[in-house]
Amino acid sequence: MRFEIFKMAFESLFSNKTRSFLSMLGIIIGVATVIAVFAIGQAARNAVDEQFSGLSAKSIMVMGAGGRPGATASSKLSLDDVPAIKENSTYIESATGMVQGNGTVSYNSIESSVSLVGTDPDYFSVSNLDLEKGRFFDEDETKDKVAVIGSDVYSAFFEEGEEAIGVILTIAGKKIEIIGVLKESGGTLGRLSKDEAIYIPYLIANSSILGDRAQTMLALEVNNVDNVELATEEVTEILREEHGLKASAEDDFRIFDAGSMVGAAQDSAELMSTILTLVAAITLVVSGIGIMNVMFVTVAERTKEIGIAKAIGGKQADILSQFLMESVILSTIGGLIGVILGQSAIPIISNLNILAMASSFTGPLLGFSFSALVGITFGFYPALKASRLDPVDALRSE
Amino acid sequence: MKDNIAIELKDVKKSYYLSNGEEIPVLKGIDLRIKEGEFVALMGESGGGKTTLLNIIGCLHPLSEGEYLLDGEDIGSVRDDFTLAYIRNKKMGFIFQQFNLFTRKTAIKNVALPALYAGADRQEREEKAKDLLNRVGLGDRLGHKPTELSGGQQQRVAVARALVNEPEIILADEPTGALDSKSGLEVMEIFKNFKKDGKTVVMVTHTAEVAKFADRIIFLRDGKVIDRNYKLKSNY
């Protein structure tokens, strides 16, 4: 019986192909939109994850506030603050500092401006950097002219597979030996990509290479994710005291914690996805109303058939289920086509670089289940009306 | 003929209400007994309430007042769709003036549909439908749609459909009204067989030629029975 109802519903939809297709169109577009939206949202989340993959949630960064409008003095932030933090803080597990700037690097007749990072050996562990080859510099080498290069720097100056360890680069006129090459990390350090930088000992960078152009940055790691906020307050106090700031003076540094940076980026990605999802949901609801209209027309057209069905013993339940089945078939087939269209559009759109999209499991699942729900919800009322028609009135209609 | 009463109506009234609430009485107190196996014709002027009465007997209409007993059981007060649909499906077969076939379905599907509602499986339905279409002389038209059949043939399909669940009662509303006299007579020949099968038949008609096939003619006027055993004039 159930299968027969399904068959009857299908036959009746098939006998009116154009109308069936048109009423499906809304659902198709709606579901494809849901999938596209989820794909965009997924891509945005992936981008955030990738961007911050190099940062642990326990990381805190301190930067000078010298360039900030309203700052009264240029920042006193320096690597001398690192031992002070290490000594006085209860929440900071490890601390390292660096200076940052640009310098001209040349090797083998290739010359290029590269980001230079002067740091101490702790930096590599705090920043989650791994070696592809060679080694990091250690405590004994803080005055040596050695460098660890990022993966993009390697590919800029060397052929693939070429030996870089032991090579002498000319950096801002100074000869410096490469002792390590980093694995690709994808991470960033403020505006700087970790893969595009050359890392050299802090003292060398500060004294002979960057000089006044250096921008100081401290990278700290908190002992526990839950203490990030406390640690931020504590570091602020330590630094204010260290820099001799009066109570009325503004901080001459800025503190960023990785968690809130990632959180903010995730929030904006989420917001975008929420807005787009809402748009898609509206599309589906509108398409549901379209289906409802079509079902009402169908019921009106087949009023006489409904009367006949009742006269020969069709129950309300039979008639309700047949019409409901029709709208469910319409919306689920529409949903299925939407899923197929949406999913196959994702690789095309992202390969054409129109929009970043990544398939998600939630998109198709949600789109499809929502389409079925739309079919049931918006098909129910017309079907109920059909089932409750008075048989004699229905028979009389032409 | 057995003397069991198949259909009994006691002071049945039926009114329609206009949208302004005005009452239009159609049946004004009908008392009626139809015996099992009896072939009754309902005659009377248009607007006299024949079709309304038939629809009430067929459980298509609720009655406004009075009692309706079917096989001695009170049906007039039943409002439950499941029970009413069951009665229409299993106990009665309806035949209409305008055939009322599903135009998109083949003859065999049309005939099989009440059996589908009754829950019969596909094989059983189609066998019964085929058998009935053979009996009404349409064994070679099983796959034809109503539009491919003549009026007489369509009405014979409708008759087969009315019989598919082996109902005890056949209700016919001017079954020959849309047919030429030859096809009409062919249909009435089938009606004659109903008697042999012991079926109770209630048929609305306004032509004496058709009414004469009945055992008894009930004459209605203005919502009342004015003659329970109306005699046709002798020239018919």
Explain how this protein is built.
The complex is a heterodimer of chains A (398) and B (236). Chain A is of the alpha+beta class and 398 residues long. Chain A is built from 12 helices and 12 strands. In chain A, strand 2 (92-107) and strand 3 form a beta hairpin. The radius of gyration of chain A is 33 Å and the shape is elongated. Mean pLDDT of chain A is 83; it is low at 68-73. By secondary structure, chain B is of the alpha/beta class. Chain B has a single domain (41-59, 79-227), classed as P-loop containing nucleotide triphosphate hydrolases (Rossmann fold), CATH 3.40.50. In chain B, a hairpin with a 5-residue loop joins strand 1 and strand 2. Chain B is globular. The relative contact order of chain B is 0.19. Classes of the chains: A alpha+beta (398), B alpha/beta (236). The A-B interface holds A 1, 4, 11-12, 15, 304-305, 307-318, 391-392, 395 and B 55, 58, 60-61, 81-82, 85-86, 88-90, 94, 96, 100-102, 104, 113-114, 116-119, 122, 161-162, 165.
Shape estimate of chain A:
elongated
Helicity range of chain A: 40-55%
The CATH superfamily label of chain B reads P-loop containing nucleotide triphosphate hydrolases
Poorly predicted runs of chain A are 68-73
CATH topology of chain B: Rossmann fold
Order of helices and strands of chain A: HHEHEEHEEHEEEEEHEHEHHHHH
Task: Give the SSE layout.
The complex is a heterodimer of chains A (398) and B (236).
Chain A: H1 2-14, H2 17-51, E1 59-64, H3 81-88, E2 92-107, E3 110-119, H4 122-126, E4 131-134, E5 146-149, H5 151-157, E6 168-171, E7 174-182, E8 188-189, E9 192-193, E10 197-201, H6 202-210, E11 215-222, H7 228-242, E12 253-257, H8 258-301, H9 303-311, H10 316-351, H11 362-387, H12 391-396
Parallel strand pairs in A: 3-10, 5-7
Antiparallel strand pairs in A: 1-11, 1-12, 2-3, 2-6, 2-11, 4-7, 5-10, 6-7, 8-9
Helix pairs in contact in A: 1-10, 2-8, 2-10, 2-11, 3-7, 8-10, 8-11, 10-11
Chain B: E1 5-17, E2 23-35, E3 39-44, H1 50-57, E4 65-70, E5 73-74, H2 81-91, E6 92-95, H3 107-117, H4 122-135, H5 151-163, E7 169-173, H6 181-196, E8 200-204, H7 208-211, E9 216-221, E10 224-227
Parallel strand pairs in B: 3-8, 3-9, 6-7, 7-8
Antiparallel strand pairs in B: 1-2, 1-4, 4-5, 9-10
